[in-house]
Amino acid sequence: MTEIQIEFDVPAQMRDGTVLRADVYRPGGTGPWPVLLSRLPYGKQTPMMTVVLDPPAAARRGFMVVLQDTRGRFASEGEWEPWTYEGSDGYDTVRWAAALPGSNGSVGMVGGSYFGNTQWMAALSKPPELKAIAPMITWSDPDDGLWTRGGAIELGITAPWSLMQGADTLMRRHRTDVGGLVNSITGLVQDLDGLASGGYGELPAGRFPAFARHDLPELGYERSRRDPEWARSCRVAGRHGEVDLPTFQVGGWYDIFSQGTLDNFTAMRRAGRSATLVMGPWTHTNWQHVVGDVNFGFSANSEFMGMRGRLHGMQLDWFERTLGEGGGDVPEPDTGKVLLFVMGINQWREETEWPLSRAVDTAFHLRADGRLTPEPPSTAEQPEEFTYDPMDPVPTTGGALLMTDDFRSGPLDQSSVEAREDVLVFTTEPLAEDTEVTGRIRAVLFAATDGPSTDWVARLCDVDEEGVSRNVADGIVRVRAATPGVPAEHVVDLWSTSIVFRAGHRIRVQVTSSNFPRWDRNLNTGEPEDRAITARVARQQVFHDPGRPSRLVLPVVPVP
Length: 560
Known about the structure:
Blueprint: E1 5-13, E2 19-26, E3 33-40, H1 49-52, H2 55-60, E4 64-69, H3 86-98, E5 103-112, H4 114-125, E6 130-136, E7 148-149, E8 152-153, H5 155-173, H6 178-193, H7 209-213, H8 220-226, H9 228-233, E9 247-254, H10 258-270, E10 275-283, E11 290-291, E12 294-295, H11 311-323, E13 338-342, E14 347-351, E15 360-366, E16 372-373, E17 384-388, H12 415-418, E18 424-427, E19 435-449, E20 454-463, E21 469-479, E22 488-501, E23 506-512, E24 538-545, E25 548-549, E26 551-557
Parallel strand pairs: 3-4, 3-5, 5-6, 6-9, 9-10, 10-13
Antiparallel strand pairs: 1-2, 2-4, 7-8, 11-12, 13-14, 15-16, 15-26, 17-24, 18-23, 19-22, 19-24, 19-26, 20-21, 20-23, 24-25
Helix pairs in contact: 3-4, 5-6
């Protein structure tokens, strides 16, 4: 094959006259070739691109690759308004890419996170040349992992992401003023560097002061509250039936958008579409085999995939089946497969469905003396109590998160968290046999607070034979209209996982009221997040008696 041809900053005019620019990679020869398109706000030549797509490798496989800066970013014209134009610009760009010299008229889209979502937005706009999408590590409902989770603000990702995107905004704003540019970028970097040492704690969290200081676009959370119609236009959830395309979806159990990936997959399957799912033990940015404190074995590495080859290669194989090779007929896509990495035993397993119909929801009840048992309480037990002080919140320690580098994601030792007086811990006896949990997890808490509002956080942990507790999954629910002192039932969604708790290990659940700065603190006053700046200490109670059986519900997969 002759050398790959690369054309830089190729202009594409959108319907309103705005020009977006893309780099185009063409295989050697004359084509025609199917097109792989990615639209991203991080710079089309960013090194992170190779995590989700290797353009030269794809070109050598016979694909034309088009990488485009989204509106208002880097080489593209227009104003940067996150999420706003991705549907219309996606439609126009697909049609433009399909008509490029050398294209065979069939376009597939690929990318992760924000540029996973640009695929969904384009697909919802229905350009006729778009034949397949491969969204990776992206959300379904932005109010379930992007802007908020369980009613709490996803402060951990929102603050650094918005500040980092602000650099290009400031460079555009001060392009003719070198002094102003230096001062503005210096201030932005100071705020970014200072998040972990106190910046995350600025109030009000719902109108984050650092964004106002730099006059950056408002939070998606902020705009969604004042403009519900705009918020609806940004959602994929509830609209999957409008997308009549095959999908290849990739996620990680410790990715901040893990449940979004699963929800997108299940919705496409329910709509009768061909959908493929791959779920590894990965975080949002780490697709290797050592994640957090755990070495899952080289089989888990996305470059190996348990002897299946590179994940990139699997993806390109799928695109060949869905788009066809250059100039050839486009074959029917396969019906879709499910490939799950089962942690604990550290093995890939092929399935035909998600969720697994053979998984059985099994309750583990919170009991006196920190016990966690299959048996519910049969006699009265005193409630557990603790004090939650928003000015001394439980620090974020691991999990499915994407924050500044000060906060590691993945499974981490929880000893410092579990030593706190504001964290309740309930643990099973050592397991007599391996116990697989694969599916969606929830905690049902009968709880009371002495204020008008508070948060409840639950975290599933795996405790090994040496007593080291590591987080598996967690979740939060914000209670906005509590009746002070009156117990109520609250369901905390811990999202999903696949793990075998090995014989001799113990299952543990933590219950507390904060995980900061992953999620913003509830100040316990009931004031809206965009105005709340005063905190009060809350007295919390968690009940576990016959009439109020607080419990952890795990999808247990029976031993074959």
